[in-house]
Design a protein that fits this description.
The structure is a single chain. It contains one helix and nine strands; from the N terminus they run αβββββββββ. It is mainly β. The strands form two sheets. Strands 4-3-6-7-9 form a five-stranded antiparallel beta sheet, with no helix packed on it. Strands 1, 2, 5 and 8 form a four-stranded mixed beta sheet that branches. The longest helix is centred in the first third of the chain and has 19 residues. It is globular and about 45 Å long. About 19% of the residues have low confidence.
Length: 142
């Protein structure tokens, strides 16, 4: 009789422990199917220019959000456009891993005398050393 109560108590505690353990399936790592998380620590470089139609915006700041495909509420890093070798002004983000990024540009169109902005998602699909040249289309802030 005491053994039956002991088994019932152990089974009851085991049942409570099983229910109390809440596993978040989104963070499960399956061998060979690891989630791709963008961020620093890789081999890729993004070179980005903000473009208002055919005009490269030379006074702008470009923001980057790691592991995002939609406009975020905050960003992980930013840089100001710089000129190099008579090419359009660019922002360079080196050392990025394979993964998703959201890029946002905000600047001043000197010819139209207006603030412009725009954003795009971008995915780096390889873990190889490569430089990706991108343009972010921008338009006036309304």
């Amino acid at each position: 009789m005491k053994i039956t109560w002991l088994y019932a108590a152990v089974l009851g505690l085991f049942s409570v422990a099983m229910v109390a353990c809440d596993k978040d399936d989104d963070n499960v790592t399956v061998p060979g199917n690891n989630p791709v998380i963008g961020g620093k620590g890789g081999l890729a470089t993004l070179k980005i220019t903000a473009m208002d139609d055919t005009l490269a915006i030379d006074s702008c700041k470009i923001y980057i959000k790691y592991n995002a495909i939609q406009m975020p509420t905050s960003f992980d890093d930013s840089a100001v456009c710089t000129f190099s070798d008579q090419k359009p002004p660019v922002v360079t983000f080196p050392g990025l891993k394979k993964g998703s990024y959201y890029l946002y540009a905000k600047g001043w169109n000197i010819y139209e005398s207006q603030t412009v902005h725009g954003g795009i998602p971008y995915t780096i699909v390889n873990d190889t050393m490569a430089t990706y040249t991108l343009q972010i289309p921008v338009q006036p802030i309304k």
